[in-house]
């Protein structure tokens, strides 16, 4: 996706991707631009002085919502002669604002023509990597005395970019310009404001009343400071853990997103820049990872997903009653139903995970009111699991897309087309059932039983759910166990044949609790064994499988989020050393990315590459990668809510030194946790 | 036009309670514009209890659209959120109410829903 030398700033789903000079010149291979509500609002934004492009001396990402570029005119070889400097400072909030400063360092006065070329193709986010040749609507540009209006109209669908300057400018249809005179050592400034509008026929903006916080820079800064102050503090003997943690907290702030239906509350979007929207699976898993640190995200996520839970059958959106959504989008392709994201429901794990998150959230927060508030949604979720997801009629959750045009083939987290295979490398027919989803369903029923007993006053329902969970566990351990491998199959085909490859999904099974106790050790050994564990993390598919490829998206790369749930599972079944082994691998890898873990990195053995090789098109920061270090900290410190208290049972490797987590919020108020590395992991490393 | 729309609102009024709306309260007015004429439907929701009238009264949320599109919505042939994104339906006031009320519109009459697997049958 965006090459790594591009600069990104954002606030919610408003974001800018640009070159190191601050310029924007979008091409299919470099999809730069100013984006909002899944639409590009600027595809060209190029500053020139006397007709010359500028060169970057440096740029700073000051905060996630602001950056600053130091520029000089001319080519790189002219640096030493530069008599002018240009500073561009910009921020995104409700709008995009750029402050331009020009300094004359010469002993002579200068006359300058300053020009900004501005234009927009109004690409839908799903189009940005294509040549955009035939938009179905009409693109227009209107130069007014005090502003430039760029627009796109297709029926009643209208998007506009309004550009204005604090210093009067000459506007034309392709940009705006200034002619200025600067005495020696004089400076010139202007503020440029770029408004993005989604206007309906009545001239009202679709997003009216949606702002989370003030859009002014100071309000954004205040909001970020408050966010950081509210989160627990982490101190570590080795600075890297604390630094990674701080980075994650700031990135989580950046990833907060306020959906249309919630009037300002925020939940974690999936990833920057292309996934700044609500995803059922990503938002829930990120909340599970971050519960000990930022619990308010969970309450919002649960409420939003509940408020959009499916109510009817819709084959295009793959909606069913009780199903939790997969992805919501606001762009042209969703509006005109060229894509199904209004919202799209094609995922089978979000629904059981919704119940899992509600229970976990209650255990931490003690928020009984929310559990009562969402009782009907949980019952509908279970009904979906039992009545609509069991396509084969044998008590498992299956998927087969009904939208064969734009729907997802694989509706589990490994959603690429070739992620599910037999050991011989061939792909199974549909419907398919993947193992981790059965684990989530088991866990959801066990947790749902607790909620029914303690909060919904329905012990009969609790017993029913427990009976169903027990039967599922028994069935699962019979049908999915791969005898000659000593692990669970990745998936079943509709005739019951196992997709008998070794995969990271078995780690999620430990987390869910569906693994029979006498099999847990074999699973643990696989997770830290040479076929799955690279030294950095757990491969999505084991080395030695036909489809294994160290840079195969779901067929061999390491996903930090995936490994973090494997670690949680190991800890749950009493394998703290193994958990600490893979946890410290990921935390070591984080150092190479300045604390910001990418979506995925290569599955090469650690001793071979010495550093984690970033997966080529990975999105960053990505919510569940950002959540991974937080879940790993929880896992290594053994933080567990227990009968209203926070239990702390640290098991850290020796190299980790001392770690303290201060002010962990929960039903206990705020408590601190302290740990010291005592585990010798060398016995496991081989 | 209005048969399907009238039936939808009358059924809703008779139903009196809709569990899918149990978490919301507020008044939502649908303004259906056709040329110079506007038909109003006012839906008052009180934690799931529903009262429908044809009053042109102030509301927390006002939804504007054409009778033709609204008829498609209440018969499941069009999707409310897509219409909203397209600008074919507009909202003023609290957008949450319309997002919730959209959920009680029926599914498509042509939807197949989940299909049970039968060996050898595609």
From TrEMBL, chain A:
The keyword Transferase applies. One of its GO terms (molecular function) is transaminase activity. The keyword Membrane does not apply. It comes from the Bacteria. SUPFAM superfamilies: Six-hairpin glycosidases (SSF48208). Residues 329-592 form the Mannosylglycerate hydrolase MGH1-like glycoside hydrolase domain. Keywords: Aminotransferase, Transferase. Residues 10-192 form the Putative glycogen debranching enzyme N-terminal domain. InterPro entries: 6-hairpin_glycosidase_sf, 6hp_glycosidase-like_sf, GDE_N_bis, MGH1-like_GH. This is Aminotransferase. It comes from Micromonospora andamanensis.
From TrEMBL, chain B:
Gene3D superfamilies: SCP2 sterol-binding domain. It comes from the Bacteria. Residues 14-105 form the SCP2 domain. InterPro entries: SCP2_sterol-bd_dom, SCP2_sterol-bd_dom_sf. This is SCP2 domain-containing protein. It comes from Micromonospora andamanensis.
């Amino acid at each position: 996706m965006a090459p790594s030398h591009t600069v990104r700033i954002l606030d919610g789903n408003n974001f800018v991707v640009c070159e190191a000079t601050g310029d924007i010149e979008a091409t299919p291979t470099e999809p730069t631009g100013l984006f909002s509500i899944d639409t590009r609002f600027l595809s060209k934004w190029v500053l020139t002085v006397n007709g010359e492009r500028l060169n970057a001396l440096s740029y700073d990402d000051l905060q996630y919502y602001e950056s600053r570029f130091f520029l000089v005119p001319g080519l790189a070889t002219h640096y030493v002669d530069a008599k002018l400097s240009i500073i561009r400072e910009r921020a995104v909030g409700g709008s995009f604002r750029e402050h331009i400063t020009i300094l004359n360092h010469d002993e002579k006065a200068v006359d300058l023509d300053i020009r900004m070329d501005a234009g927009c193709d109004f690409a839908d986010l799903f189009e940005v990597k294509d040549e955009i040749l035939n938009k179905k609507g009409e693109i227009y540009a209107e130069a007014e005395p005090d502003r430039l209006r760029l627009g796109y109209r297709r029926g009643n669908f209208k998007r506009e970019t309004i550009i204005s300057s604090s210093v009067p400018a000459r506007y034309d249809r392709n940009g705006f310009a200034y002619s200025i005179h600067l005495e020696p050592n004089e400076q010139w400034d202007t503020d440029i404001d770029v408004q993005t509008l989604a206007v309906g026929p009545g001239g009202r903006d679709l997003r009216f009343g949606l702002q989370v916080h003030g859009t002014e820079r100071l309000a954004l800064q205040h909001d970020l400071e408050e966010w950081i102050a509210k989160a627990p503090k982490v101190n570590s003997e080795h600075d890297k853990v604390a630094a990674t943690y701080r980075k994650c907290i700031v990135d989580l702030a950046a990833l907060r997103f306020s959906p249309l239906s919630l009037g300002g509350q925020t939940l974690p979007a999936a990833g920057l820049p292309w996934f700044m929207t609500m995803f059922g699976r990503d938002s829930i898993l990120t909340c599970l990872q971050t519960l000990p640190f930022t619990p308010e995200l969970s309450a919002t996520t649960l409420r939003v997903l509940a408020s959009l839970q499916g109510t009817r059958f819709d084959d295009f959106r793959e909606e069913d009653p009780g199903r939790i959504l997969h992805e919501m989008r606001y762009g042209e392709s969703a509006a005109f139903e060229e894509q199904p994201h209004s919202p799209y429901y094609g995922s089978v794990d979000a629904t059981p995970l919704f119940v899992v998150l509600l229970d976990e959230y209650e255990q931490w927060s003690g928020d009984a009111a929310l559990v009562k508030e969402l009782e009907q949604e949980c019952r509908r979720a279970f009904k979906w699991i039992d009545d609509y997801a069991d396509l084969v009629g044998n008590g498992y959750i299956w998927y087969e897309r009904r939208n064969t045009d734009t729907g997802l083939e694989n509706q589990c987290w490994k959603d690429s087309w070739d992620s599910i295979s037999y050991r011989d490398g061939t792909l199974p027919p549909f419907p398919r059932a993947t193992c981790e989803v059965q684990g989530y369903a088991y866990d959801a029923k066990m947790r749902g039983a607790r909620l029914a007993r303690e909060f919904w006053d329905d012990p009969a329902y609790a017993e029913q759910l427990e009976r169903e969970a027990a039967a599922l566990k028994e069935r699962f351990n019979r049908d999915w166990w791969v005898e000659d491998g000593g692990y669970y199959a990745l998936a079943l085909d509709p005739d019951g044949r196992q997709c008998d490859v070794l995969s990271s999904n078995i780690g999620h099974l430990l987390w869910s609790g569906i693994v029979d106790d006498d099999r847990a050790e074999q699973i643990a050994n696989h997770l830290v064994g040479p076929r799955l564990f690279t030294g950095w993390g757990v491969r999505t598919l084991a080395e030695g499988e036909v489809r294994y490829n160290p840079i195969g998206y779901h067929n061999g790369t390491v996903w930090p989020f995936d490994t973090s749930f494997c670690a949680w599972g190991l800890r749950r079944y009493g394998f703290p050393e193994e958990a600490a082994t893979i946890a410290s691998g990921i935390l070591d890898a984080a150092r190479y990315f300045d604390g910001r873990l990418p979506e995925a990195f290569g599955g090469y053995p650690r001793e071979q590459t010495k550093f984690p090789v970033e997966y080529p098109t990975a999105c960053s920061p990505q919510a569940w990668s950002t959540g991974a270090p937080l879940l790993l900290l929880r896992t290594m410190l053994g933080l567990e809510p227990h009968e209203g208290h926070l239990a702390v049972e640290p098991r850290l490797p020796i190299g980790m030194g001392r770690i303290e987590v201060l002010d962990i919020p929960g039903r206990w108020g705020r408590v601190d946790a302290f740990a010291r590395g005592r585990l010798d992991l060398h016995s496991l490393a081989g | 036009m209005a048969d399907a729309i009238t039936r939808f609102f009358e059924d809703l009024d008779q139903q009196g309670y809709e569990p899918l709306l149990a978490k919301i309260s507020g008044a939502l007015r649908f303004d259906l514009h056709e040329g110079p004429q506007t038909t109003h439907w006012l839906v008052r929701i009180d934690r799931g209890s529903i009262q429908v009238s044809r009053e042109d009264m102030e509301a927390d949320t006002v939804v504007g659209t054409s009778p033709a599109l609204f008829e498609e919505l209440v018969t499941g042939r069009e999707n409310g959120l897509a219409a909203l994104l397209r600008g074919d339906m507009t909202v003023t006031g609290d957008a949450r109410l319309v997002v919730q009320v959209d959920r009680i519109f029926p599914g498509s009459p042509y939807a197949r829903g989940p299909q049970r697997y039968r060996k050898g049958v595609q």
